[in-house]
UniProtKB/TrEMBL annotation:
It comes from Acetobacter aceti. Pfam families: YceD. This is Phosphodiesterase. Residues 152-191 are annotated as: Disordered. InterPro entries: YceD.
Length: 191
């Protein structure tokens, strides 16, 4: 969303138009970003380029005014490889499930201990849910924070987090005095 509160990719849907939908017969809606919207999405997410973004939703209302949405998103984009600093093309195809919850029924809390696989609740005001904004938010969650161009391997000099932790433990163990070293010296000197 821009600083002025306007979404880069907005596709509002009136919740009351979903009344006839059900789990067995969901309402299907596809949203596709225009070229201009793709440029704005790339700027928002800090990507070199977003060539296309399409998301197909299956929507069905639940109790109250809550709407369960299953999305299938396909995005063609460019990313910056963290190892080579080269831009590379990528295609992301991802499925997700979200729940639009009226802001009046959403407690606004965020559970830090929640599982990553849990369904995200997205609060909305009034009678309108924004499928475009939801797609961009899901894309931001799906993106790899450390993208690598396919086929690029990590140079040996670059350590992984596990290797850094293991190295720190080994360094700490070497610096820590052995509590039995003094006893061992006394025993050697005394005998």
């Amino acid at each position: 969303m821009t600083d002025s509160g306007v979404s880069e990719f907005s596709r509002p849907v009136l919740v009351r138009t979903l009344r006839g939908a059900s789990v067995d017969s969901p309402r299907e809606i596809s949203v596709t970003a225009t070229a201009t919207e793709c440029v704005r999405i790339a700027e928002r997410l800090g990507l070199p380029n977003v060539a296309s973004l399409t998301c197909r939703y299956e929507l069905h209302p639940q109790t109250g005014h809550t709407v369960l949405a299953t999305g299938s998103m396909t995005v063609r984009l460019s990313q910056l490889c963290v190892l080579t600093l080269e831009v590379f093309e990528d295609v992301i195809a991802e499925r997700f499930v979200i729940r639009f919850v009226p802001a009046s029924e959403h407690d606004g809390s965020f559970d830090e201990n929640s599982e990553l696989d849990e369904i995200d609740d997205i609060p909305y005001d009034g009678d309108v849910i924004d499928l475009g904004e939801a797609a961009v938010e899901q894309l931001s969650l799906i993106l790899d924070p450390y993208p690598r161009r396919p086929g690029v391997t990590r140079p040996a000099a670059v350590l992984t987090e596990d290797e850094v932790s293991r190295q720190a433990e080994e360094d700490e163990a070497e610096e820590r005095p052995n509590p039995f070293a003094a006893l061992s010296r006394l025993k050697r000197d005394g005998s």
